[in-house]
Amino acid sequence: QVQLVESGGGLVQPGGSLRLSCAASGFPFSTYDMKWYRQAPGKEREFVAIISSGYSTAYIDYVKGRFTISRDNARNTVYLQMNSLLPEDTAVYYCNVRTFLDYWGRGTQVTVSS
Protein backbone atom coordinates (compact mmCIF):
# COMPACT_ATOMS: atom_id res chain seq x y z
CA GLN A 1 0.00 0.00 0.00
CA VAL A 2 1.04 3.61 -0.45
CA GLN A 3 3.09 4.99 2.43
CA LEU A 4 4.54 8.45 2.89
CA VAL A 5 6.79 9.17 5.87
CA GLU A 6 7.93 12.72 6.54
CA SER A 7 10.94 13.66 8.65
CA GLY A 8 13.29 16.55 9.31
CA GLY A 9 11.05 18.96 11.19
CA GLY A 10 12.02 20.69 14.39
CA LEU A 11 12.50 23.98 16.18
CA VAL A 12 14.53 26.63 14.36
CA GLN A 13 15.15 30.33 14.90
CA PRO A 14 13.87 32.91 12.41
CA GLY A 15 16.23 33.10 9.45
CA GLY A 16 17.29 29.50 9.91
CA SER A 17 16.99 26.49 7.60
CA LEU A 18 15.52 23.01 7.65
CA ARG A 19 15.40 20.21 5.13
CA LEU A 20 12.33 18.03 5.13
CA SER A 21 12.27 14.55 3.63
CA CYS A 22 9.41 12.34 2.56
CA ALA A 23 10.14 8.66 1.97
CA ALA A 24 7.59 7.05 -0.33
CA SER A 25 6.69 3.44 -1.04
CA GLY A 26 3.92 1.33 -2.54
CA PHE A 27 3.66 3.04 -5.91
CA PRO A 28 5.95 3.81 -8.90
CA PHE A 29 7.44 6.94 -7.38
CA SER A 30 9.24 8.26 -10.45
CA THR A 31 6.04 8.49 -12.48
CA TYR A 32 4.06 10.68 -10.09
CA ASP A 33 4.03 14.33 -9.17
CA MET A 34 4.82 14.92 -5.50
CA LYS A 35 3.57 17.77 -3.34
CA TRP A 36 4.19 19.41 -0.01
CA TYR A 37 1.38 20.98 1.99
CA ARG A 38 1.31 22.60 5.41
CA GLN A 39 -1.25 23.33 8.08
CA ALA A 40 -0.75 26.04 10.65
CA PRO A 41 -2.67 26.05 13.95
CA GLY A 42 -6.25 27.14 13.39
CA LYS A 43 -5.86 27.31 9.62
CA GLU A 44 -6.73 25.12 6.68
CA ARG A 45 -4.15 22.93 5.01
CA GLU A 46 -2.49 24.79 2.15
CA PHE A 47 -0.42 23.82 -0.85
CA VAL A 48 3.27 24.72 -0.62
CA ALA A 49 5.16 23.17 -3.54
CA ILE A 50 4.99 20.56 -6.29
CA ILE A 51 7.56 18.69 -8.32
CA SER A 52 6.39 16.83 -11.38
CA SER A 53 7.62 13.49 -12.64
CA GLY A 54 9.57 15.55 -15.18
CA TYR A 55 11.17 17.66 -12.43
CA SER A 56 9.15 20.83 -13.11
CA THR A 57 8.46 22.77 -9.92
CA ALA A 58 5.96 25.31 -8.65
CA TYR A 59 5.48 27.12 -5.34
CA ILE A 60 3.03 29.32 -3.53
CA ASP A 61 4.15 32.93 -3.79
CA TYR A 62 4.90 33.21 -0.08
CA VAL A 63 7.76 30.70 -0.22
CA LYS A 64 9.23 31.48 -3.64
CA GLY A 65 12.93 32.16 -3.39
CA ARG A 66 13.11 30.61 0.09
CA PHE A 67 11.95 27.01 -0.39
CA THR A 68 13.20 24.44 -2.91
CA ILE A 69 11.48 21.15 -3.69
CA SER A 70 13.51 18.30 -5.15
CA ARG A 71 13.29 14.56 -5.65
CA ASP A 72 15.58 11.56 -5.72
CA ASN A 73 13.92 8.79 -7.69
CA ALA A 74 16.65 6.30 -6.77
CA ARG A 75 15.70 6.76 -3.10
CA ASN A 76 11.94 7.27 -3.65
CA THR A 77 12.27 10.47 -1.65
CA VAL A 78 11.08 14.04 -2.08
CA TYR A 79 12.69 16.91 -0.22
CA LEU A 80 11.77 20.43 0.82
CA GLN A 81 14.73 22.69 1.55
CA MET A 82 13.49 25.66 3.58
CA ASN A 83 15.71 28.70 4.03
CA SER A 84 15.17 32.12 5.60
CA LEU A 85 12.41 30.68 7.73
CA LEU A 86 9.84 33.00 9.24
CA PRO A 87 7.57 32.52 12.27
CA GLU A 88 4.70 32.40 9.77
CA ASP A 89 6.17 29.18 8.36
CA THR A 90 5.33 27.38 11.60
CA ALA A 91 3.07 24.47 10.67
CA VAL A 92 2.82 20.73 10.27
CA TYR A 93 4.23 19.88 6.85
CA TYR A 94 2.71 17.01 4.88
CA CYS A 95 3.81 15.06 1.84
CA ASN A 96 1.13 14.18 -0.74
CA VAL A 97 0.71 12.05 -3.81
CA ARG A 98 -2.40 11.58 -5.89
CA THR A 99 -2.63 8.21 -7.60
CA PHE A 100 -6.19 6.89 -7.77
CA LEU A 101 -6.67 8.52 -4.38
CA ASP A 102 -5.00 11.28 -2.40
CA TYR A 103 -2.41 9.90 0.02
CA TRP A 104 -0.89 11.78 2.93
CA GLY A 105 1.85 11.20 5.43
CA ARG A 106 1.43 11.91 9.13
CA GLY A 107 3.33 15.16 8.86
CA THR A 108 6.35 16.69 10.52
CA GLN A 109 6.18 19.71 12.82
CA VAL A 110 8.16 22.81 11.92
CA THR A 111 8.34 25.54 14.55
CA VAL A 112 10.08 28.83 13.80
CA SER A 113 10.61 30.79 16.98
CA SER A 114 13.28 32.68 18.87
Query: End-to-end distance, in Å?
Result: 40 Å
| Secondary-structure element series | EEEEEEEEEEE
Counting helices, strands and paired strands, the structural category is mainly beta
Q: How many runs of DSSP E, i.e. beta strands? A: 11
What share of the residues lie within helices?
A: under 10%
Largest sheet: 7 strands, mixed
Average pLDDT rating: 97
Radius of gyration, CA atoms, in whole angstroms: 13 Å
Low-confidence stretches: none
Separate helix tally: 0
Shape: globular
Beta percentage is: over 45%
Short description:
This protein is mainly beta and 114 residues long.
Explain the overall architecture:
This protein has strands spanning 3-7, 10-12, 18-25, 34-39, 46-51, 57-59, 67-72, 77-82, 91-98, 102-104, 108-112. The protein has no helices and eleven strands. The strands form two sheets. Strands 2, 4, 5, 6, 9, 10 and 11 form a seven-stranded mixed beta sheet that branches. Strands 1-3-8-7 form a four-stranded antiparallel beta sheet, with no helix packed on it. The radius of gyration is 13 Å and the shape is globular. The protein is mostly beta strands and 114 residues long.
